[in-house]
Design a protein that fits this description.
Length: 183
């Protein structure tokens, strides 16, 4: 007594092969999907703000105090959708060729970072402190005029250049830039 005919065996074999191929395709798709780390905890449906969807600009009306000037650095979302920012932007002074001058901005941790949900056309802000390069010993600072700032949104891999000439240190020595968490 034959329980399964040879044509049935071929059909079962084809179904098993098709299933294995489908599982392989699903595994490949899962491996190329965006990582969950790109989304802030608790805001799974709202992606991080990418530099490509932001206008990053500096309010040049700074407030000076004791050899430093404090500026508001703004992130305006023009991506067409809501996104989130969390933490500290990366900021450094650059020359005309876009090369970094001195060390990148240190973090002012006086305020705890929090997730900012940024609607389309809304703006988030941080405070940038620029210490007058003339306050440092010239041999440790080697003062030059920066052409502007390279700014990375918090946790971002891409940056934007913000034109803004100011006195900067060209050597990696004194910390002349400090940034707060985005609000």
């Amino acid at each position: 007594m034959q329980l399964i005919s040879s044509s049935s065996k071929r059909l079962i074999g084809a179904v098993v092969l098709a299933g294995a191929a489908a599982l392989g395709l699903l595994a490949a798709l899962a491996a190329t999907a965006s990582p969950a780390a790109a989304v802030q905890p608790g805001l799974a449906a709202t992606p991080r703000c990418a530099a490509s969807g932001l206008v990053i600009w500096l309010d040049t009306d700074g407030n000076g105090a004791a050899g430093s000037t404090f500026y508001n650095l703004h992130f305006t979302n023009l991506s067409g959708r809501t996104c989130t920012l969390f933490g500290y932007p990366g900021v450094s002074a650059v020359n005309l060729a876009g090369r970094q001058l001195g060390r990148a901005a240190s973090r002012d941790s006086s305020r705890r970072p929090r997730t900012i949900r940024l609607a389309n056309r809304a703006t988030a802000t941080t405070t940038l402190r620029i210490v007058d390069a003339g306050n440092f010993v010239s041999t440790s600072c080697s003062p030059v005029t920066a052409a502007g700032l390279r700014v990375f949104p918090p946790n971002g891999a891409a940056s934007k250049l913000v034109p803004f000439p100011f006195a900067a240190c060209s050597r990696i020595g004194p910390a002349f830039l400090t940034v707060r968490a985005v609000r």
